[in-house]
Amino acid sequence: MQIAVEDIEIFADGVDHAECVAAHPDGTIWAGGEAGQIYKISADGKDIKEVANTGGFILGIAFSPDCSWLAVCDLKNKCVWKLDTVSYSLEKFATGADGASLSIPNYAVFDSAGKLYVSDSGAFRQVNGKIFCFDTDGSERIWHNGPFNFANGMCLSKDEKLLYLVCTWLPGVEKIEINDDGTAGKRAVVVTMPETCPDGVALDEEENLYISCYAPNAIYKLATDGSFEQLVNDWEAHTLSNPTNIAFGGKDFKQLYAANLGRWHLSRVDIGKKGLPLVCHKSKQ
Fold first, then answer.
1. What is the pLDDT of residues 21-30, one digit of tens each?
2. Would you give the distance in Å from CA 90 to the centre of its chain?
3. pLDDT tens-digit profile of 208-262?
4. What is the domain-level CATH number for residue 255?
5. How many domains is the chain built from?
6. Angle, CA of 136, 22 and 71, to the nearest 5°
7. Cβ–Cβ under 8 Å, residues 8 and 241
8. How far apart are CA 88 and CA 107, in angstroms?
9. How far, in Å, CA of 175 to CA of 34, rounded?
10. How far is CA 163 from the centre of its chain?
11. Which residues make beta-bridge pairs with 224?
């Protein structure tokens, strides 16, 4: 499957160099800006509303299973915020665990029990990334001490027995087994991607893996049969411009949304396959 740049739609033109994107079950699309903005965007992309501002730099975001709050990773403030999705009130949720502070909290993923995984990229150009875990009972810990080569985007497998993790300067994607007791198990490289800077990742319902790259301006697909292909590459960097996080949503849940750190809009493309519902979508089905 190849996607022409002309088939990618410019969606929600007017966001401030968004790093992240998330689809709410009600059809709205949420994103964050480089000056702390958190945006709620109508399903047609025309109404862009800034609902909160952390004063920081927003990286990954994720809805809790019941969508009552949004986990917001903040680079500048080195924390994860808890944004109430009704009142839009903000409170600091986490700054670290096990005596270690968050350095670059980059991406957040909830499991079906409400446990929150947060990737911490570590220091720039140093291989010391890790994964934190925050449970519903208030416990918090370093779930996997890595070290990962700039831990970035994440997603869970359908059965929640694997956590996929983008390592930007591997460059590529790793997977970590999740043991029955919730601890981290074996770690393995899924794919390496020479001369790229992978950033975001998402699964479709068949568990094919989609990987967005800050450089080149491209999205790749790793199929379940092991085949690997570049779906699209916008060498002009106008429609896809340093695409970072990606998320499925939209019509029939077959639309892939991409945040473009290099520009002022989100992108949207019909993948032709239904995305794997996240826990926030499953609770609304």
1. 999 999 999 9
2. 20
3. 999 999 999 999 999 999 999 999 999 999 999 999 999 999 999 999 999 999 9
4. 2.120.10.30
5. 1
6. 30
7. no
8. 20
9. 29
10. 13
11. none
HEC letters along the chain: CCCCHHHCEEECCCCCCCCEEEECCCCCEEEECCCCEEEEECCCCCCEEEEEECCCCEEEEEECCCCCEEEEEECCCCEEEEEECCCCCEEEEECEECCEECCCEEEEEECCCCCEEEEECCCCCCCCEEEEEECCCCCEEEEEEEEECCEEEEEECCCCCEEEEEECCCCEEEEEEECCCCCEEEEEEEEECCCCEEEEEEEECCCCEEEEEEECCEEEEECCCCCEEEEEECCCCCCCCCEEEEEEECHHHCEEEEEECCCCCEEEEECCCCECCCHHHHCCC
For residue 243, say if its preceding peptide bond is cis, omega within 30 degrees of 0.
Answer: no
Instruction: For tokens 């009600």, name the residue.
Output: 26
Residue 283 pLDDT greater than 80, yes or no:
no
Containing structural domain, residue 123: 5-282
> What pLDDT, on the 0 to 100 scale, is given for residue 202?
98
